[in-house]
């Protein structure tokens, strides 16, 4: 098989999302060196574009050279040291992953749990912090892609303000889809990924560190276990000095740059509105067809809809039919939703009414109702 033999698929799963032609073209542009002044200008513009998306003035804002999980790893490994306490909200796959990473760093992990499909009540997080006031971090997943839940951030961020504890937030599925507002929400470390609402191929993890987070990093007594993800070393490349650390993935950075230009052209608020409108349209249409929405009412993500199939139908064969007969990818359920749920992403370039219409026509074909 050759790559050119791959047939296109409409990507309406939990990521990756559809990539526009313009971005693929940018990615195919001539590779230059990672120290070439032209590339450094592109890199600086990417970092500035990311500040706008994150809603921050943080100096240390850049794309980590790997996927969203590397953003998660970079967040934790830079601010945590063995023996530190980490309070972590767990109500799905990605909270579970955060807790596992913190344990591997050698931290004392205090989980604050909620049933999958429900938010973690902010008061539960604040109470856990009162019980462990010396915790180094509190970490929450803003958009839990395994369940479709939108976690409120403001109360926790406000409670931690002026405190030594750092607020770490996973915005992999939220950045570009719903407001993240890093500075307004009192977030100290926030990371994302390119292949969800930014509509850029997977491979980079936008990340931002507040001055408070950078001060904590400066006061570490041991270096981070990861040399590759050490922000103090990466800072040497991003800053005036332009010191080589690792080779930036040039063409992936081109793609992210073009993705940010596209969002800027549309306008960030218009981009949020588009995600919100199509998400609501899909959710209504699925309910009309007898599907039930899994995520807690009032806390549903527009960009990721989790639905249980009607009449306890098994999801696997129908999802396979969507892919094979209709060339549409949706995600299967995870955890308690395994075997009976779909996770439908309307992210980035996939967040439009045409995607919804194509999906509904295919759903009606594989699962006739009435
Ligand atoms: C997709 C995702 C990740 C992991 O990102 P990868 O790019 O798959 O490494 C982390 N957190 C959340 C909430 C995600 O949706």
Structural write-up:
This protein has helices spanning 21-27, 37-54, 68-79, 93-104, 122-131, 154-160, 211-218, 231-238, 250-266, 268-288, 316-326, 353-366; strands at residues 10-11, 60-64, 85-90, 108-113, 137-141, 143-144, 149-150, 166-170, 189-191, 205-209, 292-293, 304-308, 328-329, 331-332, 341-345. The protein contains 12 helices and 15 strands. The longest helix has 21 residues, at 268-288. The radius of gyration is 21 Å and the shape is globular. β14 and β15 form a beta hairpin. The chain folds into 2 domains: 3-16 and 267-366, Alpha-Beta Complex (Aspartate Aminotransferase, domain 1); 29-263, Aspartate Aminotransferase, domain 2 (3-Layer(aba) Sandwich). The strands form 4 sheets. A 7-stranded mixed β-sheet has the order 2-10-9-8-5-3-4, with helices on both faces. The protein has 370 residues and is an alpha/beta fold. The chain binds pyridoxal-5'-phosphate (PLP).
Features:
370 residues, Aspartate Aminotransferase, domain 1, Aspartate Aminotransferase, domain 2, 2 domains, globular, binds pyridoxal-5'-phosphate
